[in-house]
Amino acid sequence: MDRFLRILAMSFFVGSLLACTERTGKQSAKEGEPSRPNILFIFADDWGWGDLSAHGHPYVKTPNIDRLVAEGTDFHRFTVASGVCSPSRAAVLSGHFPARFNINGHFAWVPQNAQRNMPDWLDNEATLLPSLLQQSGYVTAHFGKWHLSNNMIPDSPTPARYGYDTYGAFNCSGEQMPFYEDADKTIEFMENARRENQPFFINLWIHEPHTPHHVIPKYQWGFRELEETDNIYASVLSHADERIGKVLDALDRLNLTENTLVVFSSDNGPARAATPTALETYHDTATGVGYNIAGSKGITGGRKGYKAALFEGGIGVPFIARWPGKIKAGAVDSVSLISAVDLLPTFCEIAGVQLPDSYSPDGISQLGTLKGTPYPSRTKPLFWKMDGSWPINKNKPYHWVSYAIVDQNWKLVGNSDLSYVELYDITKDVYEQHDLKEENTEVVERLVHQIEEWQSSLPDKPDNKLFSEERNRL
What we know:
By secondary structure, this protein is of the alpha/beta class. The protein has one domain: Alkaline Phosphatase, subunit A (3-Layer(aba) Sandwich), CATH 3.40.720.10. Helices cover about 30% and strands about 15% of the residues. A hairpin with a 6-residue loop joins β15 (about 410-415) and β16. α6 packs parallel to α8 (about 230-255). The longest helix is centred in the first third of the chain and has 30 residues, at about 1-30.
């Protein structure tokens, strides 16, 4: 009996040891994979809401972005924080309305920045998304357009000063990366991160379809039946879509797709010439020679206005999110009001990053919305500020708005002194066709007061530390 018990005990011990070894082996295999999700944020430049074949564009073909639509959720009510590039991008990095940094237009030559009461670059000492992720253990990279300063300001901080471990960029100080290298550099960075088993955050900020339009014959050939300007526009978007496809294929090859949130969006609505413009080429100091705005044929899916407007055509852009197993595949959310200022708190919650106690973003985390809980009206208001043209310019009929607010279901737009406003129920009227101010005077009064209070919280001028040497000599 004793011998039997000893054998039984030994069998139990060996079995337990084998089970423990098996569990340890499985755990070791998992330890070889990043435990936190990767984040790939693809940000296009002037890509209109209607400039996707998935959104019904009559001739543009975007099969790779359409793949994201099929494998993720297409959010139809996302807005950026400005109708132009630099302030829109500043909001993404900071989680704040760009007016808090006096960034109300694009970064240009130093005298133009000074004339518009703007700094010469975004404050790199502010609380910023890449820095927060970098400090928490993510490897971070930026590839593509920068424009949070300008290549004409040589003493401006490079992207490395904003929390990126690696970067290749244009519209920044220093060497200008060729725009078409963005995908290859992104793939190389992902391969290195995979090899080191590190979670990554990547900005892939593509050039297209901003001017100058750089055309390549093989893409033009695919749209040879179109008129020249349409051919140019379709071919540059096709080139961009193909590069995005290369990155998505690399995620598959590296077995990273399941653990990577991919977001595709745009910094503002499509550019359009205000008056008939002849097709010409010109040289851009950051990206080289290409076609001018006559080749810009973007559409907004029926939304009012274009780039540089605070109507939905200028700030309502594509927003597609894919995260297998977390975000619904093949879904459309046509009600949730998501803003670019929400991206910092959202990405940080996804990454498990605690926001500093001293930091209070203008946005909110939209993780629940991404996972399928609609957010149809905002309880935390959104504000916009731009330099509108008043009285209304007949060649730019939608560019008169200087201030806008969205609060709950209401959107109010106003001119520079708020002497003229329009009011829309933005949850029901994305095309802004029905001005409801006459029958909702109390709502108008409340929203105007909110804008005035917000105005009083904004700085009068930028901090001198954000001035270049040239600025200090003016």
